[in-house]
Amino acid sequence: MRRFAQYFLLCLVVLTGPVCERLAFADRPILARISYTRGVDAMNRERYDDAIELFNSAIDDGYREESIYFQRGVCLESIGELDKAIADFDLSIQQSPRSENYFHRASCYVAAEDWPKAITDYTSCLKHDSKNADAWYGWAFAHGQIEKFEEGIEGCTKTIELDASRSEAFLLRGFFRNQIGKYEEAVADTTKTIELDAELADGYFQRACALIELSQYEKAKTDLEQTLRLDNEHAEAWHRLSWTLAQLGDHNKALIGYKRAMAFDPENAYILKNRGDSYGALGKMEDAITDYTSALNIEPNFAEAMHQRGWAFIELDTPQRALNDFNQAVAIAPKYAEAYKARASLLVSHGKIEPALDDYDKTIELAPDDVEAINEAAWIRATCADGRFRDVTKAIQLARSACEKTQWREPVFLDTYAAALAAGGEFTEAVKWQSRALELSGGDLRPDLQSRLRLYQQRTSYRESLRR
To answer: Which DSSP category does 178 fall into?
Structure first.
């Protein structure tokens, strides 16, 4: 009979709510159970504040089971009260270390951007339930946030093995593969993303990012245009599309795109720098310098913008300002090879051969495949009128390296190799390779090549104090 009375009271409270809570004859355990039941109902209806209040009442009346802390934690998580939610999940885990408890606490740590703790909890969740696709995805995402992309790829792969319909797992794996240079695989993943969800703008965007790295600019342009059809306010898509148009030589359209990108992200130094590049390509050096300077105002240590502004100053015939920028770029980024090469070029044009050679050598040390720097260093050592800077052995070695790296198909590099050979008295070989350079060349280069060929045929080496 007592059990029947308790059951009757429970049903009555669920049906009539606060009225029955005021029944003086109801004992506290029954009221706790009633509050808990009503709290679950409120939670299921997404009335989280009401649910939390009811769970609090149940706990005050002595309801201490694991489930109430878990469910109150879920409600607190849903309204962004992360610290309180974590405290509740702590209590639920102490009583019952279930996979769900770890999963929700991990989700709180993700929201709080505490990635190591999130990873720890996702790992614990997966120990209890290795087939939880959501946990594998969260584990992957958290690893990506601390740039452990290989682990992120592993987590995405596990997610896909459990649920191959999850477009977001393919997308995330494609993003991670982009980050570690696996561009072909990134294209495959993002293509699968698009197959699963053709309306997902980021699927096209991430594929475009991989295609850009593969120098497939037309395909990247198509994907970026589709990204913007789906999300016209995607600032980075506007930025990438503009940069891609610039690579395709359409700088006027690029400038239009950069303007749109800046409207959505006006403090982006990289957009300003790249727009400056397009202005420079169109010969608008003052506009280019304005953008480079604006970029540097936002990012004072932006070495690439400093370097590009230096080149713009050269075009405006202000070499000292250019040298100042190249010096600053090297100071900001001591491993930035392009800044050393630019400074070397400027120094050579002003007859400062020794520091120029030092800069070319530093460029080659930092970027061993930079054939332009290799060729310039070889040319100076082969042809400089000042014998202090000539080094025939090294010139031949460097020039041969540049030719090998370009499969002996670049006439300018063959010209340098012939000059180095002639400087060493190997005139027969010099004539051979200068003749080959002429075969491959065209346009304005031919008169100089022919002039040097006649010198080598007369067993005379070529001398030049300044850069060609």
So the answer is: H
Q: Evaluate whether 178 touches 213 at the Cβ level (below 8 Å).
A: yes
Q: What is the DSSP letter of 385?
A: S
- DSSP label at 299? -
Residue pair 162/139 in contact by the 8 Å Cβ criterion: no
- pLDDT tens for each residue of 63-115: 999 999 999 999 999 999 999 999 999 999 999 999 999 999 999 999 999 99
**Which pair of structure tokens corresponds to residue 80?**
């962004």
In this predicted structure, what is the pLDDT of residue 464? 87
Q: What is the pLDDT of residue 466?
A: 54
Which tokens hold the place of 307?
Answer: 């370097």
Distances (CA, A) of 365 to 33, 373, 398: 74, 10, 13
- Residue owning tokens 């649920």: 163
Q: Which fold has domain 352-468?
A: 1.25.40
pLDDT at residue 371, rounded to an integer: 98
Tallying the residues shown for the chain, one arrives at 468
Confidence check: pLDDT of 427 > 80? yes
H or E, element range at 426: none
Other CB atoms within 10 A of residue 419 CB: 28
HSE (side-chain half, CA atoms, 13 Å) at 94: 10
Which DSSP letter does residue 466 get?
S
Cβ-count burial of 370 within 10 angstroms (0-12 exposed, 13-18 middle, 19+ buried)?
buried
What does 332-377 look like in DSSP terms, one character per residue? H-TT-HHHHHHHHHHHHHTT-HHHHHHHHHHHHHH-TT-HHHHHHH
Q: Could you tell me where the DSSP H helices lie in 99-182?
A: 99-111, 115-128, 133-145, 149-162, 167-179
Tokens standing for residue 372:
């332009």
Q: Note whether 309 and 427 are within 8 A (CB).
A: no
Residue 465 has pLDDT above 70, yes or no: no
- Mean pLDDT, residues 269-276 taken together: 98
How far the first Cα of the chain sits from its last, in Å, is 107
Burial of 21 (0-12, 13-18, 19+ CB in 10 A): middle
pLDDT, residue 31, reads 87
State the average pLDDT over residues 17-33. Answer: 57
What is residue 277's three-state secondary structure?
A: helix
Question: What's the confidence (pLDDT) of residue 28?
Answer: 66
CB 101 within 8 A of CB 95: no
Asked if the model's pLDDT at residue 1 lies above 90, the reply is: no
> Where residue 30 falls among pLDDT bands split at 50, 70, 90?
confident
Please state the domain extents for the chain: 352-468
Distance CA 86, CA 249 (A): 54
